[in-house]
Each structure stands twice: as structure tokens, then as C-alpha cells.
């Protein structure tokens, strides 16, 4: 039965790699394994148990409110153009310091991806400004796109990313932490990830120097001139950044940091992630009124974002829970845990390598990381690790793996903006993210 379970898992991830609907594939695979476990193996984890695991995630009080409010807030920031003010305020200064444009582009994208936790969304928002600006400084188009793409994993330390609330919920249930608070997870992983971001920026800058693709390395071709005249039009316009509007997207993050247990300036129980996101949304509604936008339309955008968050994120987490229950039913989870118990290094390697490779191949490591966290992360203590350590490494690895995938949504957007092949961008980000994976994983497990 273990080999049958492994075969089903392999087929599952192959189908996801082939772009079949991930939620459907995970659910069907989980159901098949649960049925085999119930009627062939006599497992006490039945189909009914697996379905219950799915339903529990749909009404998870620590998970659902966080995800839907973050997504709703993000949609409001886009509607009010507060995100445009933030992006412009950070991007424009790079034009005046050519020596740091490549590492600066990486780090700016990484920081903005924390506030706007969508890799494809941040690639579009930042890329439409930065790619033409870098090309105007005679950076080769492929390196301009690579610099932005290399920063599209900042969401790994965002409270809006699905994994951080999930890990916090698992750790809380195991009594590892006192509350299902995503900020507890983020505070532990932030420094290793920040070091990883610096590593990515530095290594890509070295590659840029070696390949001679930086500032002044090329003359604008007719295609480049067209790009500069077309896509850079937004940067040529006298876009007046309103510093107040630029600060609005950051307000919830500031409140969350101040309310974290490590800082403790604000009461943690009061300023939860949903509360902070709703405060930010309320400020966004005021911005809409000031700009004479229809407040009803702004409200609809929040509801649409919340709905998309439930559809795209919460149901995916629920499907991963059903899949994990199926693995447990057929005996695969127990076998994997037993195989890892003999070596802490095996568990550490599996957490980093599995989601990383899956994300690099498929362009999305969500399914792999979610399944790993549901099935293996709760057993972290058996390997001499904490749940936060093991779960965080899995989701960080997924984010980094996606940042070297030639089929990720972000790289396809950036390739279109720069007029280059996505594979050429992935080639340039591969070494930086692999180095960052090693460094970040080491920092997470050793400190």
C-alpha cells in the first residue's frame, strides 16, 4: 500500500505540473487514498474523516479571516491606486543611482511583495515601471526583467501568504506557540529571509557584472526605443507621488509589527491580522472618498478580493488537508515520518528540496508546500525540530523555487514587458535563488 500511495502522490504532482486544476487533483487523490486506506488497509482514517479535514479548513477561525481580509485589502489598495503611489515612491529614486540599480531593483521588489503578496501581481506592478526604466539606463532587457523577477519571493514573510497562518495554526494546535498568530512565524523567519534577499541581490549583481549586462552595457535598439517610448510612458508622466497615499498600504504591516509579542507596543489580542487589514481598508475607503471614487465600488473590490482569497487560497488549503488525510489513511504519512526519524538532516533536506524542486518545475510550489505542512510538519518534534522551523523552510523553499521557474506567472509577465525569452530570465535567477535557499535554510535551522 505504501508503494501505491507513493505512485498516487507522484501522479498527483505530475498532473499539477501539467496544469490540471490543483484543487480538484488534490481532492480526488485524497479521496482515492482514503478509500484504499478504509476498505483495503482497514485504517481508522476513513473517507468521512478526510472530508471532515477538508471542511474544517473552510471554517478555520485562525486561517480564513486572515486570508480573506488580506486579499480584500490588497484589492482596495489597487482600486484606490495607493499601491501605485507606494511603487512609484520606491522605484523612481533608482534612476538617480545607476550603480545600485540591479540589487536595488531586487530589494525593492522583495519589500513590495511583502505588502502586495502576489508574485504575478507585483511583477506586473513593479515591472511596468522598473523594466523600461532600467532599459533606459542601457541595462540589457533580460537583466532588467531578471532583477525584478528575483525579488518576487518577498511574500514568504507576508501575513497574507497562506502558509504563515497555516504554520501558526499547526504550531498552536501542537501547543508550540500560545496563539495561532502568523506574526509569530514571520518574526522567526524574517531575518533569515532578509539575509536571503540580500544574497539574491548580491549574487545577481555579480552575475550582471560578469555578463556585462548592467548600466551602459548596451545601446537601445529600435525595439528598445519602442519599449522605452511605450511601456515607460507611465514613468515619463509627471506622476506626483502622494506620500500619504504611499504610506497607506504599509499601515497594516506597521500595526502588526507593533502588536507582535516581540515588540509589544500595541495589544496583541486586539490588533490581529484581520483587524489590522480592516483598519487599512477603512483608510482606503477614506482615500476613495477624497479622490471622488464611488465608495460602493471600493467596497465591492474588497468583497471581490475576499471572495478570490477564499476561492484561490482557502479551498486550496482545504484540498491539501484532504490530500494529507488520504496519505495518512493509506499509511504513507507514517512511513515518511518513520523514515525521517532516524535522521534530522533527512527531514531538513526534504523540507527544502521537495517544495523547491516542485515550484521550479511547475511555477507554483503551493500544492507541494501545503501538502508537506499538513502531513509532515506536525511531526517536527520527532525530528528534533520545531513546527515553525520545518514549516517555514518548506514555504520559503517553494517561494524561491518559483523564482527560478520559466513557467511562473511572474516571469511570463516580465518576459513580455522586456521582450525576451522566459528561459533566459530563469537562467539568471537560478544561481542566486539556489544560493539563497542554502543560506536561508541554514539560518532557519541553526539560529
Automatic annotation (TrEMBL):
InterPro entries: C4_dicarb_anaerob_car, C4_dicarb_anaerob_car-like. The keyword RNA-binding does not apply. Keywords: Cell membrane, Membrane, Transmembrane, Transmembrane helix, Transport. Its main location: membrane. It is a multi-pass membrane protein. One of its GO terms (molecular function) is C4-dicarboxylate transmembrane transporter activity. It comes from the Bacteria. It holds the Pfam family DcuC. The chain crosses the membrane at residues 24-42, 62-82, 94-112, 144-163, 183-211, 244-264, 270-290, 310-327, 347-372, 429-446. The keyword Acetylation does not apply. GO terms for cellular component: plasma membrane. It is found in: Cell membrane. Belongs to the DcuC/DcuD transporter (TC 2.A.61) family. PANTHER family: ANAEROBIC C4-DICARBOXYLATE TRANSPORTER DCUC-RELATED. NCBIfam families: DcuC_1. This is C4-dicarboxylate ABC transporter. It comes from Turicimonas muris.
